[in-house]
Specification:
86 residues, mainly alpha, 3 helices
Amino acid sequence: MFNRNSTLLGIGLAALPPIVLWLIFVIFLKNDAIIMDKPAIPYLIAIGLNLVMLRYFARKHFDLTSRGIMMTTFVCMLLIAIFKFH
């Protein structure tokens, strides 16, 4: 019924850490945290979490899910590079 090896599942799983960390850092902390002096930190934490998930699913041989996580992480890294460094 629920296929754990799908690209869409990987994309959905990889989108969760950036969204959750954005909610935590921007909405709940309202930029009052000391860590917010470096605005790219939440996104770098999210990328690290995505890489941990990628390793887990790659070891379990869920190739399609790993591919979805890898694609989403790559897109997030590109977006961070484009918007934070320009």
